[in-house]
């Protein structure tokens, strides 16, 4: 008697009924199977490591600015001496002047460390996107790999600069229009400008993330399949920015919160952005309009010939004759003993 087929589980029925739920389930499976957690950790680590050389370069630039404007340096020294008492103020002043004198070496070291950490960061991002798209990492020489990743880092920097300029220009244009019509003193006018800058920020973010999803994977990806993913990434990124601003307002009243909460918040924000990028890539790669995942070639089969040598026909015959003779002699010997 044949057993009746097992009924599908509620989860399977829900996935079959709702396409969006099935899409999320497939994206989650791709995220887990491709090692998304490891890629998020790698991107977060190298993002934090890249902050150190960025601060060094920014400090070097500030040192060059102070060196070219002695009155500004004197103002800062006077403010430090008047704020910090006695020897502490003198020590801070000595550190500031020494920092200005060593601005070139600080900048050079910062650039060197920045190239190393920036390449590792870009390498982690590109490897994660390549894996989540279901692609195979192409075999390249180390030098070519480094050069391509550094060019991609420059391209991403240019895309971020264009996005930043679009946002700033939109805000500046709104402020100029308010002054032109005489509404720059009204609060609702500034709120209107702030509200109108949100779509512009979303459009700029969408362009950046569309470039990231289509150009950073190590193999070519179609733009059409990444459009919705870029929209989801732009909306999620703006939501994280709003949550980050709310978090900073919460900890702004406490000195301890400013000292430690800002660092913890920065680490958490970078981790969330990395996780969002990796998961959205998995969601984009498992869409109905995404390119099919390439079929992995089977493992090579090694054929080893095995030569079996059959024994000669004379050997079994000889063994049989010898065995028969020995058996006959043994039987005759036993019969003679029995007669005695």
Automatic annotation (TrEMBL):
Membrane-spanning parts: 43-67, 145-168, 188-214, 258-282, 313-334
Lineage, opening ranks: Bacteria, Bacillati, Actinomycetota, Actinomycetes, Pseudonocardiales
Compartmental location: Cell membrane
InterPro entries: Virul_fac_BrkB
Chief localization: membrane
GO cellular component: plasma membrane
Pfam families: Virul_fac_BrkB
Keyword Cell membrane: yes
Protein name: Membrane protein
Topology of this chain in the membrane: Multi-pass membrane protein
